[in-house]
């Protein structure tokens, strides 16, 4: 079984915010597969896809903890469903990447993202992650305000396209593995934004308290 986890904060207050792009991507995966999220035996909602591409069953998950406690839910999901960390993909917002750019990694540091820090505390660093660029915004703007804000209206088309591409990347992970996802989607991003610098495991979502 493969486990695809989108990170975010629960509740309507956070729906559609930059910090919740992980939720948006797994919602799109569920829509494509025609499955619905249901309560899980742990602090998360899950949707199961049977017979996905690649032959594996796929569990989509959204932790219902706040961002900085994501690892509690993810760790519990691995134990309950007996998933190997090598079969996990975590989808997360990344402020150090320009809007709509994707960056996949087979492993790495949390890079300042509290959701990933929490997961690392429970799983270690050997799990795949897909960082979805949400942009930094104006340097003078408070970072917490930026990531907890909704996307601007003039970004709507780009956000929709990026959500679709991130879902495509996750489907590639399920069907072909992390290397194929990295080769296909990192290369595409690099060709589109050559010359732009963003650290590969840099910070994303430096927001206050439990929402981070």
> Which spans of ≥5 residues are poorly predicted at pLDDT below 50?
193-210
- For the record, the CATH class is Alpha Beta
Per DSSP E runs of 2 or more residues, the count of β-strands stands at 7
Number of individual domains? 1
**Share of β-strand residues:** 15-25%
For this structure, what is the CATH homologous superfamily? Answer: Peptidyl-tRNA hydrolase
The end-to-end span amounts to 28 Å
Here the CATH topology equals: Rossmann fold
Q: What Rg is obtained from the alpha carbons, in whole angstroms? A: 15 Å
Query: If classified by CATH, what would the architecture be?
Result: 3-Layer(aba) Sandwich
- Helicity range of the residues? 25-40%
Structural class by SSE content? alpha/beta
Spatial shape: globular
For the structure shown, list the relevant keywords.
212 residues; alpha/beta; Rossmann fold; 7-stranded mixed sheet; 6 helices
In short:
This protein is an alpha/beta fold. The protein contains six helices and seven strands, in the order βαβββαββαβααα. The chain has a seven-stranded mixed beta sheet, sandwiched between helices.
Describe the structure.
This protein is an alpha/beta fold and 212 residues long. The protein has a single domain (2-205), classed as Rossmann fold (3-Layer(aba) Sandwich). The chain contains six helices and seven strands, in the order βαβββαββαβααα. Strands 2-3-4-1-5-7-6 form a seven-stranded mixed beta sheet, with helices on both faces. Helix 1 (21-33) packs across helix 5 and helix 2 runs parallel beside helix 3. The chain is globular. It starts with a strand and ends in a 20-residue tail after the last helix.
């Amino acid at each position: 079984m493969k486990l695809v986890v989108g990170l975010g904060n629960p509740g309507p207050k956070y729906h559609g915010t930059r910090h919740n792009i992980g939720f948006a991507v797994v919602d799109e995966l569920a829509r494509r597969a025609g499955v619905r999220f249901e309560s899980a035996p742990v602090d998360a909602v899950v949707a199961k896809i049977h017979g996905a591409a690649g032959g594996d069953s796929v569990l989509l998950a959204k932790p219902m903890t706040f961002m900085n406690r994501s690892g509690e839910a993810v760790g519990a999901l691995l134990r309950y469903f007996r998933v190997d960390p090598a079969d996990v993909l975590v989808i997360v917002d990344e402020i150090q990447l320009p809007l709509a750019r994707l960056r996949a990694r087979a492993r790495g540091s949390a890079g300042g993202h509290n959701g990933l820090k929490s997961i690392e505390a429970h799983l270690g660093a050997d799990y795949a992650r897909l960082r979805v660029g949400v942009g930094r915004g104006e340097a003078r703007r408070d970072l917490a305000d930026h990531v907890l804000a909704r996307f601007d209206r003039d970004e709507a088309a780009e956000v929709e396209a990026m959500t679709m591409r991130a879902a495509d990347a996750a489907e590639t992970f399920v069907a072909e593995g992390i290397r194929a996802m990295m080769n296909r989607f990192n290369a595409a991003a690099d060709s589109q934004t050559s010359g732009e610098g963003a650290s590969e495991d840099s910070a994303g979502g430096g927001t206050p308290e439990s929402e981070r």
